[in-house]
Amino acid sequence: MYPTKLRRWHSAMIRTCSALVLLACCWTPVFANGLQPFRGPQPVRFLVGTNWQTGLHLIDSSTESLVMARDGWLHTVAADSRQTKMQPTRKRFEPASAMQMRNQLRAEFGSDFDVVATQNFLVVQPRGRGDRWPEMFEDCHRSFVDFMTKRGVQVRHGRFPMVAVVLPDARAMYAELDRLKIDVSRVSGIYANRCNRVMTHDGGRLASIAATVRHEAAHQSAFNTGVHSRVNDTPSWITEGVGQMFEPAAINSAGASQRIGERVNAESMAHLRKTMTLRSSKDLAGWVQRLVDGDEAFRDPVEVHTAYSVAWAMMFYLSERDNEGFADILNFTATRPPFETYRRGQRRIDFERIMGTDTLTFANRLARFLNDLP
User: Fold this and answer.
1) What's the N-to-C CA distance of the chain in angstroms?
2) Rounded mean pLDDT of the chain?
3) What does residue 271 show for φ and ψ, rounded to 5 degrees?
């Protein structure tokens, strides 16, 4: 157990460090071993295909440079191509305006689609779909910001309009994912970090895909408000746990969400009750330790469902019973150095320091919490 005084000191340090940086849309010039010294983000011209674009040179590794384009896309330039495909420029980096991005999206998707502008989004959707999708994405983002802010998480205003693309059916969505070279299967929607877009489809009942859309919209909001960083190694139990938390519709309803039972991810809870005995924390403790230490279970098709469910349980418990720990783990991981591999031993050390206890004690508390849920 860590003394309360030490934990409060650590929390204060996290808040202080978080206040010094802007994430998701800006850059933290802190570099790990293997990264070349760098003076901070610099405006550059860089080559994408046969076209030159203006961007922000974020960082160099031994193999590539990372550049953010004016529309928020992340591009890489191979180290052996830096001299020919990336040039410094005196031109100041200015993110694309909402109007510029709207025109760009109209040209990209053509006359069969509308591009609807809202306060925070540009929503690409088949013509004639009205306000249903734009309102849904706005509600998701507003609820996310409100939820995080109330719990002390550092939330920042992004510099780019968020883009959500709604395709007419699943086939069209997979064709779009193929065009962007995103290899996924059997999904109703996805948040793609590289292009900073949520993509889903309108080919079925909204209720059947709404939970997935809320999950992916939470990812997009997290990566665009600095709750997660788009360029560092954040543990999957944190990113996917947050996504799972926002699947229930009650999260988007201030009235209904006052009751904890309606905030529960019913699918994750049912899976946990089916696959392990929650009256004993033995099984749960093993899973907590595995997810804290590494992300392998999220890549295993046999174990992935349990990994998502335990990740939800961990983040949901923190958000409901330990707001300080919830905020501290998110604020800390968001400010980790870019491109640095988050090694197993360090992940465990950081978790236990931030939580103020070891993983076994945390799992015991988590099991009691889950047993008390309706």
Assistant:
1) 29
2) 88
3) -65, -40
Q: Do 126 and 202 form a contact (C-beta atoms < 8 A)?
A: yes
**How many C-beta atoms lie closer than 10 Å to residue 101's C-beta?**
20
CB of 153 within 8 A of CB of 326? yes
* Order of strands across the sheet that contains 121-126: 113-117, 121-126, 162-167, 197-201, 189-192
Q: Of 50-59, 154-163, 345-354, give the range with the top mean pLDDT.
A: 345-354
Taking only the tens place, the pLDDT of each residue in 270-292 is 999 999 988 778 889 999 999 99
CA angle in degrees (0–180, nearest 5) for 350-352-358: 155
User: What is the pTM (predicted TM-score) of this model?
Assistant: 0.88
Q: Indicate whether 112 pLDDT > 50.
A: yes
Ordered domains of the chain (ranges, CATH) = 42-88 (2.30.30), 98-224 (3.40.30.160), 236-372 (no CATH)
User: Edge-to-edge strands of the sheet including 64-69?
Assistant: 74-78, 64-69, 51-60, 42-48, 86-88
- The per-residue pLDDT for 254 is 57
Are 227 and 153 in contact by the 8 Å Cβ rule? The answer is: yes
Q: Does 35 or 203 have the greater pLDDT score?
A: 203
Residue 316: phi and psi, rounded to 5, are -65, -45
